[in-house]
């Protein structure tokens, strides 16, 4: 926001004073407070950025203090649940526009943020049908100023698309690393010692914040279970191909998936894990 000059004043809130200390050290905001009400009063734009499961409680606290004409938004990884939990608290005259920047890393806390995070990444807005077009355009311009490309989508569609592209892949990573950890007692260190590319990539994803991801799965149940059902069927199909030495089935799938990877690269959506030379960061 600061790089883009997109706000006259940036006010930051956290419920933990230690987090504000880190944010202060990084020069993130013009004012910082552990009081959410103080933080939102007079704001033109309020962006909720806690784990999804905390949005409702936070919205209830700040809602009566929002300025008329303000935009209330968020960055949650799930959208239907945000509309369900925050929507009922939004006062008349406040524009509620849920949003999801598809950008981030496995790191969390203020020190995981960096100015280039949103460059070239998509940000999905999921306004409900009655939302003012002008307010949607304003929020769109905000995210574009931050470097994002913006798409407007129905919340239900968002949750299904993200279940396949982000939520289930995270669950698979958590699961494979958990399975390997269970094996570890048998193999005494070999999993770590010989961990090759594939497993290492999964461990990065599986290092993501436990609270954030617990809340994603608890709040996108329907879509995640739908995708998991299909995933399990396809996995059984592969298991069967291996058992019966059906090389054609394996080869055909691997050829198809290689083409998908190439199309992602061609679309410019394969920026490397965005550390930009800062090296690995320790979690908060
Ligand atoms: N990490 C990522 O790559 C991405 C995360 N998101 C979404 O953004 C949101 C924030 O994620 P991050 O910035 O990664 O997390 P974070 O862990 O860096 O920040 C979340 C903050 O919320 C605070 N918090 C937790 N419970 C709270 C409560 N009950 N009341 C007030 N504050 C509370 C935590 O102390 C922490 O400071 C989540 O909803 C997540 O789904 C969206 C896109 C990418
Ligand atoms: O670290 C990664 O690879 C991510 O996938 C980051 C991420 C996490 C959650 C989101 O809702 C969007 C992006």
UniProtKB/TrEMBL annotation:
Occurrences of domain Prephenate/arogenate dehydrogenase (ranges): 1-272
Pfam families: PDH_C, PDH_N
Entry superkingdom: Bacteria
Claim: Metal-binding is one of the keywords in the record: no
Swiss-Prot/TrEMBL catalytic activity: prephenate + NAD(+) = 3-(4-hydroxyphenyl)pyruvate + CO2 + NADH
EC number, UniProt record: 1.3.1.12
Record-stated family: Belongs to the prephenate/arogenate dehydrogenase family.
Full protein name: prephenate dehydrogenase
Native organism: Rhizomicrobium palustre
């Amino acid at each position: 926001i600061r790089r883009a000059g997109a706000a006259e004043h940036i006010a930051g809130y956290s419920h933990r004073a230690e987090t504000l200390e880190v944010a202060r050290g990084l020069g993130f905001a013009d004012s910082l407070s552990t009081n959410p009400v103080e933080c939102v009063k007079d704001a033109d734009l309020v962006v909720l950025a806690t784990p999804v499961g905390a949005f409702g409680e936070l919205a209830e606290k700040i809602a009566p203090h929002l300025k008329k004409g303000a935009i209330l938004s968020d960055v949650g990884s799930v959208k239907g649940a945000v509309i369900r939990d925050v929507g009922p608290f939004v006062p008349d005259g406040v524009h509620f526009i849920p949003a999801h920047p598809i950008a981030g890393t496995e790191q969390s806390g203020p020190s995981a943020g960096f100015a280039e995070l949103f460059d070239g990444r998509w940000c999905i807005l999921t306004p409900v049908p009655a939302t003012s077009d002008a307010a949607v355009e304003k929020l769109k311009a905000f995210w574009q100023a931050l470097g994002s490309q913006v798409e407007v989508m129905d919340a239900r569609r968002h949750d299904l698309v993200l279940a396949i592209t982000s939520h289930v892949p995270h669950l698979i990573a958590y699961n494979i690393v958990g399975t390997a950890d269970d094996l570890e007692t048998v193999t005494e260190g070999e999993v770590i010692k010989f961990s090759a590319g594939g497993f290492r990539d999964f461990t990065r994803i599986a290092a993501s914040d436990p609270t954030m991801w617990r809340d994603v799965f608890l709040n996108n149940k329907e879509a995640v279970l739908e995708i998991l059902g299909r995933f399990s069927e396809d996995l059984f199909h592969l298991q069967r191909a291996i058992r019966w030495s059906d090389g054609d089935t394996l080869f055909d799938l691997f050829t198809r998936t290689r083409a998908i990877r190439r199309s992602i690269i061609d679309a410019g959506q394969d920026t490397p894990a965005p550390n930009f030379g800062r090296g690995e960061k320790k979690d908060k």
